[in-house]
User: Which sequence fits this backbone?
């Protein structure tokens, strides 16, 4: 069978290599020509390429099961298997830059028999009598029996065959900067290390090759903290934030990038079917960000994408299955297994934004997942549900059984504590334009 995969990111390449290994004739289309033999890879069309990453346990699990040589290549390239302190071995993820990850994946893919890498702009699909027949790439048609769309969060490929996505902006933006440890300095190891401060979040992401990324997350409407995108502003505040100070000090770490801004972040969901609830084109499938995006600060994107890809490939491998029926079954599966993460993050982000504005936690409303997990520090009996949720080894519904326990903790007056450090307003006072009105309307801290 001839299959075209549109998108050469982690999810698209996973699909392409797995299909090629089962004997299909596969073409992977991406606007980027792939990593250069040496030097920096300026990856086209991937906003988050140089931003922080930590690849969750699902990524390790899927690769070791389906593409074990890719997992080995990632470790050989410097990726570090890492498990948060106190968590079981099954929670091991991969501490690795996105650039290292994709370079290793593309290198293995380039050697894959049955897989051709095509550089070009995928413009749309062709069809005949309700079935997909190919993809138009730079004005020419690449014929296909099946087309898998694994485009990034910013692409609009095949938008005309599905209704608009549900959701929209998650309400947050961020800035990040990458550092490398000086000789003799031991960089951190493990998963991301985050801290909540009044009005913002700060997270450190350990990565490969003695590198790490420092991240500051703000409300998208906060125009004053938006100035952190400038190197001098970021360098002013980083030493003042306890979560970042040990990992950004010039005596121990050297910045290897400028400050990079991440905006246009969304929580969206979009199924396989058209506005009538029907399969728009038999043989056309959507996976990864083409189905679901969530606030990237939680690092769920690649994990959700690989789970979708793994499930779709399993359905496609079943003999005698009609392509239209596979789309219908896959849409049901995504509704049950992917949409809950969209719903979870949409609610989590909405409640966190209110806390950024200084509002308290409404204990008469549904308790958001991040607060439930934070309450495990007070009531350890919450951890058996919180750990699988945090590792994405179970759906968010696993927290339903401990929601009442978290509520009991909140009723004692306890609230997730802010880390010691400057508030959002104190950081804003250090930005240029001191004394200007705060456009976002963010208030002072409410305890």
Assistant:
């Amino acid at each position: 069978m001839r299959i075209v995969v549109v998108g050469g990111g982690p999810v698209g390449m996973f699909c392409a290599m797995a299909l090629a290994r089962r004997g299909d004739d596969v073409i992977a289309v991406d606007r980027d020509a792939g990593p250069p033999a040496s030097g920096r890879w300026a990856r086209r069309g991937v906003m988050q390429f140089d931003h922080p990453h930590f690849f969750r346990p699902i990524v390790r699990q899927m690769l070791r099961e389906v593409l074990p040589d890719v997992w080995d290549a990632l470790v050989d390239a410097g990726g570090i298997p890492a498990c948060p302190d106190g968590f079981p071995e099954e929670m091991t993820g991969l501490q690795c830059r996105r650039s290292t990850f994709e370079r290793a994946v593309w290198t293995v893919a380039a050697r894959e028999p049955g897989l051709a890498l095509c550089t070009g702009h995928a413009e749309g699909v062709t069809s005949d009598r309700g079935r997909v027949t190919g993809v138009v790439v730079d004005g020419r048609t690449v014929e296909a029996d099946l087309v898998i769309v694994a485009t990034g969060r910013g692409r609009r490929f095949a938008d005309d065959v599905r209704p608009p996505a549900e959701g929209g902006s998650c309400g947050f933006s961020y800035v990040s900067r990458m550092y490398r440890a000086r000789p003799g300095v031991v960089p951190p190891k493990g998963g991301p290390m985050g801290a909540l401060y009044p009005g913002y979040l700060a997270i450190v992401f350990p990565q490969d090759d003695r590198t790490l990324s420092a991240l500051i997350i703000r409300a998208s409407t906060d125009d004053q903290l938006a100035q952190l995108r400038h190197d001098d502003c970021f360098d002013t505040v980083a030493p003042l934030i306890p979560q970042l100070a040990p990992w950004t000090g010039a005596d121990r770490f050297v910045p290897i990038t400028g400050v990079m801004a991440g905006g246009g972040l969304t929580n969206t969901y979009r199924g396989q079917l058209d506005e009538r609830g029907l399969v728009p084109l038999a043989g056309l499938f959507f996976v990864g960000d083409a189905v679901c995006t969530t606030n990237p600060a939680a690092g769920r994107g690649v994990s959700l994408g690989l789970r979708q890809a793994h499930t779709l490939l399993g359905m496609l491998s079943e003999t005698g299955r009609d392509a239209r029926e596979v789309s219908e079954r896959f849409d049901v599966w995504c509704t049950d297994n992917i949409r809950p993460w969209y719903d979870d993050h949409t609610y989590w982000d909405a409640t966190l934004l209110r806390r950024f504005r200084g509002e308290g936690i409404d204990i008469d409303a549904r308790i958001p997942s991040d607060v439930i997990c934070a309450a495990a520090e007070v009531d350890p009996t919450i951890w058996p549900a919180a750990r699988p949720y945090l590792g994405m080894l179970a759906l968010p519904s696993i927290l339903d059984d401990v929601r009442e326990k978290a509520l009991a903790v909140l009723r004692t007056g306890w609230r997730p504590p802010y880390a010691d450090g400057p508030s959002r307003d104190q950081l804003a006072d250090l930005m240029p334009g001191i004394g200007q009105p705060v456009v976002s309307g963010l208030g002072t801290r409410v305890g």
In short: The longest strand covers residues 172-181. Confidence is low (pLDDT under 50) at residues 434-447. The radius of gyration is 22 Å.
